[in-house]
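Molecular record:
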Amino acid sequence: MDDPRYEPGMPVLDRQAVRTPTLPPSLQGLPPRSVPELRPTPLQRHYISLSVVALICGAVAITAIELGVPIGSPLVKLCVVIGAPVLFLTTADAALRIWRSAWAWMPVNPGRGLFRLAWFLATMSLLAVLAVATWAVLSA
């Protein structure tokens, strides 16, 4: 199979040739609006499913704390033990995607590339806060 979109287990289809996109006259001459993503991140296929797990664990833990359950309770700790690594992995996967996007934009539009690098730094700061918060809950 010559088609790069083919994956094992897919039915073989008669596909039309992939066309090179052409911009409408109103957008020609303007800077590009996007750059292609050259390769997927490791968790891209599972990103949504993992995010749902982290969301549910976080919602349960926050609701329990709001209802007066102490931070050191087994329920909160269980939610943190399950949810924090999943959240860390999905956030790290997103950071990798932001990093790649920043360097893909640099030759095309350095301003957008630098903006994405700022988002990358913010994401790395979020990972540090997540690590500290996880440690605080598990040591309580």
